[in-house]
Design brief:
- This protein is of the alpha/beta class and 325 residues long.
- Helices cover 32% and strands 22% of the residues.
- It is built from eleven helices and twelve strands.
- β4 and β5 form a beta hairpin.
- The longest helix is centred in the middle third of the chain and has 18 residues.
- The protein starts with a strand and ends in a 12-residue tail after the last strand.
Length: 325
């Protein structure tokens, strides 16, 4: 059984302008110790899908299944979800200031989170654990910095503190929602290195949500490409980078300097993402696709496109697998 298995997830919001269909039939699985990268443009539904399974999409209409260690997160009560968040699933948010209270010491916040889930641990033991965690994520002089407030930390240090808090109870799954967006390139690499080191040490599975394929290239085992609230392509990291099938994946890759090779200019994807108030019929990427054809007015299903296990694509372009007899 997979550690997390998401099946046919739908998330919609009722607004003054109509119903926003943010996520439309997303399915994936994450095994213990695996890293899944979820990529796509802003508005693709990446963060909303994660917030929905974590019980953080207030006011949304959510359907489907999200089995974590055999328990359906979508039907769990608020009390059950509070017990799962932190102890079973740790979460790192895009902006560390949104997860750290500005009026409390960083160490105090880590201590309170630990004691909330572990009622037998003493305050001194929890404080010592907080110091160890800050040292583990690479914060120097943790015995002193544990008494500092969030504004006394740099952006990279705040993100490391959030990683320490998320890993405090050794969760089986770590969800990182755009954890490097607000950081410069050097600090990004440091934060990713911390996550990877913790994963190797503790065997934690990771879901990394990002719009940056370059980040995914360094850490992910499997990649899920989302667009218009749907999965466009899914497969192993090397398969997605060297044998991608969907035109949207190709467009994302061609915007990377490393993928461009000797070209003088990078390619961009023309047009704009679709409005989720009124998604286009058929393939959501068709209005921006260079290979669009009449068949694209029909809805393509995720189907196998190569001999690699788990490599699927939602596109009507000719598939190279299974081979023609």
């Amino acid at each position: 059984m997979a550690l997390l298995e998401v099946d046919d997830l739908h998330v919609s919001f009722r607004t003054a302008d109509g119903v926003v269909q943010a996520v439309r039939g997303v399915s994936y699985r994450v095994d213990a110790g695996q890293t899944l990268g979820i990529v796509g443009e802003s508005g693709a539904g990446k963060s909303v899908s994660i917030q929905a399974i974590m019980g953080l999409s207030q006011g949304a209409r959510v359907s489907g299944r999200a089995l974590f260690q055999g328990r359906d997160l979508l039907t769990s009560s608020p009390a059950q979800m509070r017990a799962i968040r932190g102890a079973g699933i740790g979460m790192i948010f895009q902006d560390p200031l949104s997860g750290l209270h500005p009026c409390y010491q960083v160490g105090w916040q880590i201590v309170e989170m630990i004691r909330l889930h572990d009622h037998e641990i003493s305050k001194d033991q929890a404080r010592q654990r907080a110091v160890e965690l800050l040292r583990l994520v690479g914060i120097s002089r943790p015995e002193q910095r544990v008494r500092d407030y969030p504004h006394q930390f740099s952006g990279g240090m705040r993100q490391r503190a959030m990683i320490a808090m998320a890993m405090a109870l050794n969760p089986a799954l770590l969800v990182a929602d755009e954890p490097t967006t607000a950081l410069d390139v050097t600090v990004q690499a440091q934060a990713l290195q911390v996550i990877r080191r913790l994963q190797e040490t503790l065997g934690t599975a990771v879901i990394l949500v990002t719009h940056d394929l370059g980040v995914v290239a360094h850490v992910a085992d499997e990649v899920l490409v989302m667009y218009g609230g749907r999965v466009m392509e899914r497969g192993g990291r090397r398969t997605l980078f060297f044998a991608s099938h969907h035109p949207y994946t190709e467009g994302l890759l061609q915007s990377l300097p490393a993928y461009a090779g000797g070209r003088k200019r990078l390619h961009s994807i023309p047009g704009q993402p679709p409005s989720m108030l009124d998604p286009p019929p058929g393939c959501p990427f068709a209005p921006r696709c260079a290979y669009v054809m009449d068949k694209c007015e029909e809805d393509p299903a995720l189907e196998a496109v190569s001999g690699e296990p788990g490599h699927v694509s939602a596109c009507w372009l000719r598939r190279s697998w299974p081979p023609t007899p």
